[in-house]
Write a structure and sequence with these properties.
The chain is α/β, with parallel strands linked by helices. The chain has two domains: 196 residues, Rossmann fold; 93 residues, Roll (Methionyl-tRNA Fmet Formyltransferase, Chain A, domain 2). 26% of the residues lie in helices and 27% in strands. The protein contains eight helices and 15 strands. The protein has a seven-stranded mixed β-sheet, with helices on both faces. A hairpin with a 5-residue loop joins strand 14 and strand 15. It is elongated and about 70 Å long. The termini are far apart. InterPro entries: Fmt (IPR005794), Formyl_trans_C (IPR005793), Formyl_transf_N (IPR002376), Formyl_transf_N_sf (IPR036477), Formyl_transferase-like_C_sf (IPR011034), Met-tRNA-FMT_C (IPR044135), Met-tRNA-FMT_N (IPR041711). Keywords: Protein biosynthesis, Transferase. One of its GO terms (molecular function) is methionyl-tRNA formyltransferase activity. Its EC number is 2.1.2.9.
Length: 303
Amino acid sequence: MKIIFMGTPDFAVPVLDALYNSEHQVQAVVTVPDHWGGRNKSQKLESAVKKYADQKNLEVLQPKKLNHASFLNRLRELEPDLIVVVAFKKLPKLVWSIPRLGTINLHASLLPAFRGAAPINHAVIQGEAITGMTTFLIDEKIDTGHILLQERVPIRNDDTAGDLYNRMMEISGEFVLETIQRLESGKITPTPQRDQFASAAPKVFFDQNELDFDQPVNDLYNFIRGMSPYPASWTRYQDKILKIFFAEPVHKVHQETPGTIKTDYQTYFRIYAADGYLEIEDLQWEGKRRMGIKDFLNGLSPQ
């Protein structure tokens, strides 16, 4: 099958790799334009997908606008059977309607749950025990198309969003290949989503992630896990921002004001919440290196 792949971050690379090493033909790879970053904007930054495609000598298309005539003409010239999308922009109908079999997208939830840009983060934040992956046919709206295939993925009690992200990456390639095989053989029936069960998973931002210690300790525990490692949750300590990547919840009645921090400067760093406290284990001063609690306490002085 002739396939055009569209994606950007490292999460998309295992699917592209699986397609490249399959019997299918990857005709071209579409990703975001390069941009300048680093100190003084002096470093050219390329997407993880572009780096992989260049290593394999695949044709790379980096349109600034997805409705640009030259880009659309190139897609039509290739006459793809299918477009496969993983972590890319919203596509206009002019693009997703080109392939013979349509355009499929991989989404990191069991749709219609957690539609949006951050399904992994929100599944952990909500304390879900099960999430999964969905392949679906793209339509006019975001994450609303007919479902092709789903696979359940358990969320362990101590999973962070990063743990779940990595586990999904490991199985995503074979999952997409199975979808394509069933689609090609006619052994799959696209199923409409049940919109009444839909939930949202909007993009998450660091500046919105200050921890509210008036909340129950278990909600804080889930929030910290769901924002770890990126964009991270945080609080303020000694007039500086302190990112928190993991903490153990302790349910215990206490008389402390929520947000109170206690430490012996040797073994523990404890933040009190509404119905218990968090034993902080993995953290980082903003702008410094991430560290475990022992290293953190070794460098901490009373104020």
